[in-house]
Every structure is written in C-alpha cells, then in structure tokens.
Give the backbone structure.
Amino acid sequence: MSLPDSVSILGGVSLDPPLHVAVIMDGNGRWASARGLPRREGHRQGVEALRRAVRAAGDLGIKVLTIYSFSAENWSRPLEEVNDLMGLLKRFVRKDLAELHENGVRVRVIGDRKGLDADVLALLDEAEQLTADNKRTTLVVAFNYGGRQEIARAARKAAEDAVAGKLDPASIDAGTIEANLDTAGLPDPDLVIRTSGEQRISNFLLWQAAYAEFVFLPIYWPDFDRAALEAAIVEYRRRERRFGGVTARTGS
Ligand code: IPE
Ligand code: IPE
Ligand code: MG
C-alpha cells in the first residue's frame, strides 16, 4: 500500500503531520557502549537513522525537518571523536546529496560557519546551492550550532546595522532579531523530539522553540525509525497548544 503524500495511516487514525519537526539526535555513544562497541560505531549507525528519518519525514509530509548534528559545545569532545563526526558529515553529504536532490529535499545549514575546515564548508555550500530550488521538504542541518551563539550573532548584526545608520535602535523588536537569525524565513518548530531519554534542550533552537511541544523518546538515536517518528507525532497531536491564550490552537 502506498501512502498519500501528506497523510499516514496509523491504526486507522490519520496522522496529520506538524509543519516543522526538529530533532536532537542523542544517544549514539550509549547505543555503542551498550553493545561493547566504540562510540564511533554509534555515530555510524546514527547516520543510518538519519537517513531513515529524512525518508520518513518526506513520506509523512513534514515540510521542515531540522536535525542537530553538531553543537557549538561538541568541540569539547576528544579530538578523535570530533574527527569521526566531521568525517561522517562529509561522507553523508558526498554520498547522499544527489539522492536528497532527486527527492526534492532543500538543504539549509544553520550554525556558525566560522572556524570550520575549508572542505567541510565547501560541502555545506554545495549542498545548499544544489538544492536551493527544491520544494518538497527542507532539511535544516544544525552544524556547529548553538542557540545562544546564534542569538548573539543576530544581536551583533542588528548593532552593526544601527551603527551604519540602517537601523533605528528604537525600532529593534523580536522581529528584528528573528530576521537576523540563521533560521530567518523558516517557520518555528512545532515539535522538538529528543532521543536517549535526556530531557534538556542543550542549546538547540532556544529562540525558535519558544512554543514548541517537546517529546522525549526513551530510545537511542541509532534505533530511531519511522515508527518512532509516528509515535512522537501521535503524542504531539494529543497536546493542547495555547500560545499563551486560553483556548487551544491547532498550530500546524
Ligand atoms: C549524539 O550522540 C551525537 C552527537 C552529539 C553528535 P552522543 O554522541 O551525544 O551520544 P551519548 O549521548 O554520549 O550517548
Ligand atoms: C546535543 O547532544 C547535541 C547534538 C545532538 C548534536 P549532546 O549529547 O551534546 O548534549 P548534552 O551534552 O548531553 O547536553
Ligand atoms: Mg549525547
């Protein structure tokens, strides 16, 4: 049975997907340790889970999928692990970019580009440029990303505009900051999923997740699959989003 583009059927219940799902892909190391394997193997399997997640998100009609792939704080890991993660990112882009492009996925990268190796930068640029006009799904890759750093960069840009006489400081409001964030033009996440059982935000989309629903899944990221994504969406659909008001709003 083939599923319609924007609706999945789960036990007879129609699964209306949120517009934007963001994922904190956590637990690769513990997945590996539990099997007596090196952490590197957990990260390798994590890439397989990422492939499943992108495919499932497209099938379910999710328009924007954001993945937290490397945080601004992840540099504090042992150099060998940082190198493994950089290598996996490069391999993912090299191997999967053509397929993502064929499947109508637009890639957008958020996070600080400063300090990244030239080969990593070139691949991220290539991914964005090749897929810029695709419309089916947007895959937002948060790489060297930190929410605080992103907000600070946005504030700096606004300050620079003010000094240059292009912006009246008295007019600065939330919209000004939003327009200067890496995510400018993207909708806020409706649903943030974190795997591994940890229940924290770890500097992810601090600004954008102001009214997101959070679902914490008790599985390690390498075990993530379409069923896990559907379970998170079912839980999301049970929530009542009020956005500070008194009556529920569906959001998206
Ligand atoms: C998530 O898994 C991957 C990245 C942070 C890049 P972890 O490597 O954090 O795995 P745990 O949390 O140590 O199990
Ligand atoms: C968050 O996971 C970062 C990514 C998933 C890329 P971490 O494993 O780095 O977060 P903490 O250290 O447990 O908060
Ligand atoms: Mg972790």
Summary: The CA atoms of residues 14 and 110 lie 32 Å apart. The chain has seven helices and eight strands. The two ends are 26 Å apart (CA to CA).
